[in-house]
Design a protein that fits this description.
Elements: E1 8-12, H1 17-21, H2 33-45, E2 52-57, H3 61-71, E3 81-83, H4 101-107, H5 113-122, H6 142-169, E4 178-183, H7 185-192, E5 204-215, E6 220-226
Parallel strand pairs: 1-4, 2-3, 2-4
Antiparallel strand pairs: 1-5, 5-6
Helix pairs in contact: 2-3, 6-7
GO molecular function, one term: phosphatase activity
GO cellular component, one term: cytoplasm
Protein name: Histidine phosphatase superfamily
Length: 233
């Protein structure tokens, strides 16, 4: 059996407190009660949870809570959950600035150390709380956000290739193959290179991660291509 292409499920976080109050000075707000319900409903209706190999989430509280409410049942021990600061929202407003790891550990005490190690360097090569500064890769201007989105697409390409290789090496086994990415509405536009995308809270859309014909100076460009409607679950 030939390996099947992994799908990338882009998920927008559920309703957050600042979405309702419009108080953008609240640092790293969590979900509203309605948001928790939206995320739980996402998990209940999500196509084939058992096919998910890894969940990669923004480390902002509303994204982590969406991840836990929707996908907590398939994240035993945290070994297939990665918190990646590259997925944080575009702006430098307080509501889009994350919390220090020490605060997140108190907020999510059940997470094993492997989760915090992913936030400290496994994906984005960060050290501690540097990702909170909104400088360099994390600056809010369009050029830096565009570059950050390119890096995320390359990360997704590498994860997908590892899954394909595992499928080839374990032919006949029913391996998990799909990737869930929980992120934010504006950053999603940069990630997909689609200014029109505007998913509802706790909404999702599926993509393939592919090499484009064009080169970016460091090899072929990596793009997200929407899964054709005929292939949607």
């Amino acid at each position: 059996m030939s390996p099947t292409k992994p799908k990338i499920f882009l998920v927008r976080h559920a309703e957050s407190v600042h979405n309702v109050t419009k108080d953008f000075n609240i640092r790293d707000p969590g979900l509203t009660q309605a948001g928790h319900q939206q995320a739980a409903a996402l998990g209940a209706s999500f196509p084939d949870l058992s096919s998910v190999a890894v969940v990669i989430s923004s480390p902002l509280t509303r994204a982590i809570e969406t991840t836990l409410d929707a996908f907590g049942s398939i994240l035993p021990g945290g070994n297939n959950l990665i918190l990646d600061p590259y997925l944080q929202e575009r702006s430098d407003l307080a509501c889009d600035t994350g919390s220090p790891i020490s605060v997140l550990k108190e907020r999510f005490p059940s997470f094993p150390d492997v989760i915090w190690s992913s936030l400290s360097g496994n994906t984005s090569e960060l050290d501690g709380d540097d990702w909170l500064e909104k400088k360099g890769d994390y600056a809010a201007d369009d050029d830096n956000v565009t570059r950050r989105a390119e890096k995320v697409r390359k990360i997704l390409w590498n994860v997908a290739q590892n899954i394909v290789q595992a499928q080839a090496e374990n032919a006949g086994e029913d391996l998990k193959k799909n990737i869930v990415v929980v992120t934010h509405g504006v950053f999603m536009q940069f990630l997909t290179e689609d200014e029109t995308i505007d998913l509802p809270k706790a909404g999702w859309k599926d993509y393939y991660v592919e090499e484009a014909d064009k080169f970016d100076g460091q090899g072929k460009r990596i793009v997200l291509a929407p899964v054709p409607l005929a292939e949607d679950p």
